[in-house]
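Q: What does the assembled structure look like for these inputs?
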Amino acid sequence: MSQNNNYWQANLRIIAFCLAIWFVVSFVFGIILVEPLNSISLGGYKLGFWFAQQGSIYVFVVLIFYYAKRMAKLDREHDVHEDKDD
Amino acid sequence: MSLQATTYLVVGLTFALYIGIAIWARASTTKDFYVAGGHIHPVANGMATAADWMSAASFISMAGLIAFMGYGGSVFLMGWTGGYVLLAMLLAPYLRKFGKFTVPEFIGERYYSKGARVVAVICLIVASVTYVIGQMKGIGVAFSRFLEVQYEIGLMIGMGIVFIYAVLGGMKGITYTQIAQYCVLILAYTIPAIFISISLTGNPIPQLGLGSMMTGSEVYLLDRLDEVLRDLGFAAYTTNARLSLTNMFAYTFSLMIGTAGLPHVIIRFFTVPKVKDARSSAGWALVFIAILYTTAPSVAAMARLNLINTIEPTAGEYMVYEERPDWIRNWEATGLLAFEDKNGDGVIKYSADAETNEMTKIDRDIMVLANPEIAGLPNWVVALVAAGGLAAALSTAAGLLLAISSAISHDLLKGIWRPDINEQQELLASRVAMSGAILLAGYLGFNPPDFAAGTVALAFGLAASSIFPALMMGIFYKRMNKEGAIAGMIAGLGVTLLYVFQHKGIMFVQSTSYMGDMAPNWFLGIEPNAFGAIGALVNFAVAFAVSRVTAAPPDHIQHLVEDIRVPHGAGAPSAQH
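A:
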């Protein structure tokens, strides 16, 4: 059971890390800091506007695949992956 | 071939395809009907989830709303995609491990209570029915344009199609049909966007075109749009916040947790073979969704610019009403676009000033459907957009109706009232329940409360304030008990419904609104659509407080929570430790 507990704690740390990035790119860059970031240009985009309408979405996609990959590794490390007996 | 004939041909072909697939893959067991047998590949499931998810609101309304809101429209873009991150990390893998058919079933078992299951069914039905109204409105708009009939008749035809379609399908049929519908809708969305991006900026990738210079000039497209709008008296496109940053924060948050709490999306992750697949499938779903969602801002800005260019081709020179293009005549016939030559000079002027503005009505929902015509694209592209809009509305309506009917037939009938019915009776019951849901949604579609995306946003508030917190606490907080969860769901849903109804009218009937839908009456300046975030906080707080003063859940429930947290043993009925 403590084995599973370590696994769960590791999972919570990975989630916290991913959700911190999730929060920063959308709520911080896209909303709270949008005005200062808008003074920076990315091509024809104002940077804050770009995060709100483009950048945050790209980061979300990367985050989910990172999480899926990281968890598949964690499942094996803690020997809780699905096909170990069947 | 005329536009009308081309449209009939393209839409007819796609309908034949969907019905063919639905017949080929129709459900014969309840497992097929509820979770497609549990054998869908994660990439295929991602694609079906994307079609299930991207509704009339995403396809038809969203770019139109962004076109008129500018930066403020970002709440829809971030809110409706960010929820998938929450879904992939906080809900989907654990609910897949639990391995049952419906969301209320999880809540009923986790909180060892039939009462909790009934509360979850009510939350699910309220959220899904609200959401279905948005689809009905979208179907009505698409049909009224495509058949050139009144909105009400379009709505009735749409109801008929959904009826045939959803009752035949079941999750198995729906899943394979949704894969086809995704292909149709994504082609229909991106092809016009590519053409328009090339014509305005020379860049074939709309996401890059939006950040490029206008063809034949040194001016960036977004800077040009800001300038044109300021000249007309509107706020600048790229900096126009929606009400306030507090409101945008709450709105985005409501949409994100609402997305993660929508039962028709969650049940899609019950159809993949493994826990591992549930995680990656959420990623694939978001890839397929992101293709449309990152294109939408380009469609929005370019459509707005093209619309202004049609009415005012060069500065100070306006469109002569008698010489208006065909697309304007077509849309005027539907009643969704209207002009009034107030000063009788024969030309149409567009302005932020209500006194001199002569484009007296432009329904936001027509921006995407009219976009290819505004840009002068060939007839087959226009026809494809009509087919795409219908694919989006139909696939989402089917998914929602499945969630509603399975809640009634599996959770209420089989789970609570009549556990002794056999599988065939349960299948029949779910089809009857589906029919009832279509009729109810159709009735509410005749009294639409807001723009399609606005209606849908309310459903998110309800899912956010009731279902998401109950699911999340069920997985992450072992100590959460029956009393806390039920009190939390009722409090969250109650607060949100009260706030929405007092400003929008009871069941959205305008005349019963007793506080008026006016900004000064809003709590912290938060609009009713954005209130789900507050409802969710109330839910968490009430649930936590109540659970502290009542007994801990029994041991076997605590073991159940430990069990769903690890992937090993998925598929087996609650493994013993």
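Residues 572-577 of chain B have pLDDT under 50 and may be disordered.
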